[in-house]
Amino acid sequence: MGVYHRGETEPEDLVDVLHIHGDNIDVADQLDTIKEFGPDAVIDTTQFDTPRTQAVVDALTGVVDRYVLVSSMDVYMAYGRLHKTEPGPYPESPRTEESKLRTKPGFGHTEEIGNLHIERVALGQDALDVTITRLPAVFGLHDYQRRAGEMIDKLRESGNELRLHPSYADFHWTWGYVENIADMLIECALDRRPGTRIYNLGYPEALSFMEMHELVARLIDWKGRIIATEETTEVPKQDFGQQWGSDTSKFRRDFDYTERYSIEKAFKLTIDSVQRSGTDEHD
């Protein structure tokens, strides 16, 4: 395995892995080193940026057998409904890989910056086999969005009663633990079947925010109560009237896959590590 990245140092657990330093927009400048290494596939984790995705696809066509693109479930029309950028009736749920996609840039994005557009770059050529992976709400260590940490904070700062707005409490979302997602990406990279594939990744069950807060409360031994009520200071800005679960069964069938870590075990590992180190997920 080799890692191409912009960092100037290597993590202690990856010192024996080949590291190639550079920006992915300039990946063609490192082709001699990459070819000498001889990779079979590449997993591109640099989301959102269309020119960079194009640079990687162009440079590695004819070099690798498969290009695995890390995208997001944000590409679905449901994302536009959630953030009110594309008003209309709620799409079907759970979403499959064939569900309707957005027609406009995502919330805060442009034509060149967004997962929908990097997917179009990858799928807009036929010289390189492509696997599109649409990720869920990913949690674990190094989560800059602090999905577990925010729930812990809410519980501890609420006293003995956490109040959730009813629409937020009942909002179901597909989740994924970072270690499980890494396993899934490796399965895609090792896939030797020809052709293009698209997969939703994540746990098979979509839990509500109420269920997630209850799970975290149990794991940190929080003794208060959690209620759904409109008498709360946190009124959602998003449209939580739809559900946001996605069907991940296609990946499970194709790869005979079962997670190494259940969602409860994964949250326990995340919380234990944060509490043991005294740092947050993104530190």
Summary of the model, kept short:
This protein is an alpha/beta fold and 283 residues long. Helix content is 33%, strand content 17%. It is built from 10 helices and 12 strands.
List keywords for this structure.
33% helix, two-stranded parallel sheet, alpha/beta, four-stranded parallel β-sheet, 17% strand
Helix-strand string? EEHEHEHHEEHEHEEHEEHEHH
> Any idea of the CATH class?
Alpha Beta
Biggest sheet details: 4 strands, parallel
The helicity comes to 25-40%
Write the CATH homologous superfamily: NAD(P)-binding Rossmann-like Domain
* Quaternary organisation: single chain
At CATH level 2, the architecture is 3-Layer(aba) Sandwich
Which segments are poorly predicted (pLDDT under 50) over 5 or more consecutive residues?
A: none
Decide which structural class fits the backbone.
alpha/beta
Relative strand content:
15-25%
| Mean pLDDT over all positions | 90
Radius of gyration, in Å, reads 20 Å
Q: Total number of helical segments?
A: 10
CATH topology: Rossmann fold
What general form does the structure show?
globular
Strand order of the largest sheet: 3-4-5-10
Total E-strand runs: 12
Number of domains: 1
What features would you describe in this structure?
The protein is of the alpha/beta class and 283 residues long. It has a single domain (39-277), classed as Rossmann fold (3-Layer(aba) Sandwich), CATH 3.40.50.720. The protein has helices spanning 31-37, 50-60, 77-82, 115-123, 147-157, 166-169, 178-189, 209-219, 249-255, 263-277; strands spanning 2-5, 18-21, 41-44, 66-72, 129-135, 137-139, 161-164, 172-173, 175-177, 197-200, 207-208, 225-228. The protein has a 4-stranded parallel sheet with strand order 3-4-5-10, with helices on both faces. A two-stranded parallel ribbon has the order 1-2. Strands 6-9 form a two-stranded parallel sheet.
